[in-house]
From TrEMBL:
Protein's recorded name: Subtilisin-like protease
Major location category of this protein: secreted
One BP term from GO: proteolysis
Domain PA: start-end pairs: 359-448
PANTHER family registered for this protein in UniProt: PROPROTEIN CONVERTASE SUBTILISIN/KEXIN (PTHR10795)
Alphabetized PROSITE patterns for the sequence: SUBTILASE, SUBTILASE_SER
Amino acid sequence: MFLQAETAQRKTYVVHMDKSAMPLPYTNHLQWYSSKISSVTDPKSQEEEGNRILYTYQTAFHGLAAQLTEQEAERLEEEAGVVAVIPETRYELHTTRSPTFLGLERQESERVWSERVTDHDVVVGVLDTGIWPESESFNDTGMSPVPSTWRGACETGKRFLKRNCNKKIVGARAFYRGYEAATGKIDEELEYRSPRDKDGHGTHTAATVAGSPVRGANLLGFAYGTARGMAPRARVAAYKVCWVGGCFSSDILSAVDQAVADGVHVLSISLGGGISTYSRDSLAIATFGAMEMGVFVSCSAGNGGPDPVSLTNVSPWITTVGASTMDRDFPATVKIGTMRAFKGVSLYKGRAVLSKNKQYPLVYLGRNASSPDPTSFCLDGALDRRNVAGKIVICDRGVTPRVQKGQVVKRAGGIGMILTNTATNGEELVADSHLLPTVAVGEKEGKLIKEYAMSTSKKATATLEILGTRIGIKPSPVVAAFSSRGPNFLSLEILKPDLLAPGVNILAAWSGDMAPSSLSSDTRRVKFNILSGTSMSCPHVSGVAALIRARHPDWSPSAIKSALMTTAYVHDNTYKPLSDASGATPSSPYDHGAGHIDPLKAMDPGLVYDIGPQDYFDFLCTQDLSPSQLKVFTKRSNRSCKNSLGNNPGNLNYPAISALFPENTRVKAMTLKRTVTNVGPRVSSYRVSVSPFKGASVTVQPRTLNFTRKHEKLSYSVTFRTKLRMKRPEFGGLLWKSATHRVRSPVVITWLPPM
């Protein structure tokens, strides 16, 4: 029975289909999909069915995206051949000194690329807000012709023509059917219904991956130097999936599906949408299919830090990237009436300048220096001109974008702003291109400045001084406070994030249509912008993966990931353990994963932990998924559980090792197995060492691995024996060391609380 009320409540659903179940009368899958939709919908609206299907998917996985009511979706899920029906998910973006900081000076990156002519043929697909093709970062001078194996296209649309693609931008497509189905037709006054990037985010990430070298790049004079991507001779394919109202899963999945069909080698996805079980996570399903086709997938971890369990994109076949600082900063100072100076950061450059030799009235409208309240956030409409005109205003960070607070202060007549961190951000300093003189300070300094402004018996005063660009900052790298944290509660046996890369104050190309502050009232236009977020760290890893793929075209995605993880470092440039910007304590693998990427060492890791598609599928078989739920990952019906992990997901051949002791206190010992493949010297010998743990003894067998040929595989086991069940996880490392290589794995031991 069909209810008339159904027509008004349609939403987009992603429908996963069993390709092998298509009955004989049908000659193609679109016919079959259309008949399925027709079978569950009101016959009176049959003429609409052609419009119900938004996309069909046929490369990374099989299925369609369609507009359905909740009742229709429920009926469709009961149909033969339908594996799963998943509601549309809304994703959010996780919003140039880095090549040098990472050791990829021009000579080094050129040397990596120069070894093979085919290196130019590495294509990185970037799923984002599109691309600004006129940017100098996408100049194709000196690049070889686009390889005949590339199957992508340059789609035309508003202000995007065929000639906007070249030998650097080899493909550009836009995906908006899911977005328009959810939000209505795109307003072309606000954004381009084409691959052209109005927002700037996609241009920034694409240039970070593979931007051509541009001398004299800077933002309003800050960070002056040569901007280049991690893999400056790789090619870029832009897949525009994000719009003013967000990024929708049906569009993202179509882009992944199309990118794999086009022939990309690496996918860079700087967005996320929370955590779902594997069988209900459409991005996990699509990227599983991409991995099966040999595509390396890099995703941002999210900007939910420093809260624990804030990660997104945690599937083991995805490389999950957290964010860290670099050794470059943009210092500024706040000097209060007592002549005490406080350090901060700023990217302000404008006509209005405060004299460093003069003091200006200072005001804080909050009621408590220790905890922010509604009056202290400088929200739109919250400032009274009578209280702030002609003054420097102290605003607490949070609720609204940082640059928007400055706009509010400026409109109310304020002459400057001190942006103070709260406990959430700690001492992490993120620089912004503000609309008025502004200095951002850490929580401790902010509290002292606020106390001064509130307690002085005389009128409080201050001045702000912007000092430009400094390099050689110590300590660095530091884990960004905003970088999302583990543990990975979906599967505690898989340590996430995987690693860190630069994600704070990153200079890269920018859209010619957007101000550096992204505020509509800001009339400034720049060729480069400085942004922060795991959105910025993800393309660093994507670019380095392209470099490794160029050097080792026969390596699997998991081998590339292993090379990145086992060569990562866990100490900063003061030789101390990596620290956490949200506090004074050292960070843990739940914050930094295997550590910070070291691209040159990752080119030659010595050993790799390889994982094939069947291994990943066997991992899924340990995750309490039903046969029908597992079926969404089996494009070919012949994949089945082989039980190769012994029903312990910790036995997945992951480069990180996580031992999870169950609630049953009688389980005192656990053995995990790993296999390494020799990609270093043909004859080599590795000896193992393991850091000590309070709660368990750790034994590795054998203690030596002797390789006699290239690509030889040798296995070892790690046995954990509980001495004392710890209330908190313990962290350490396992290191295989030869005469020429060091191969390190982070180790985590967790004891679940007794029942």
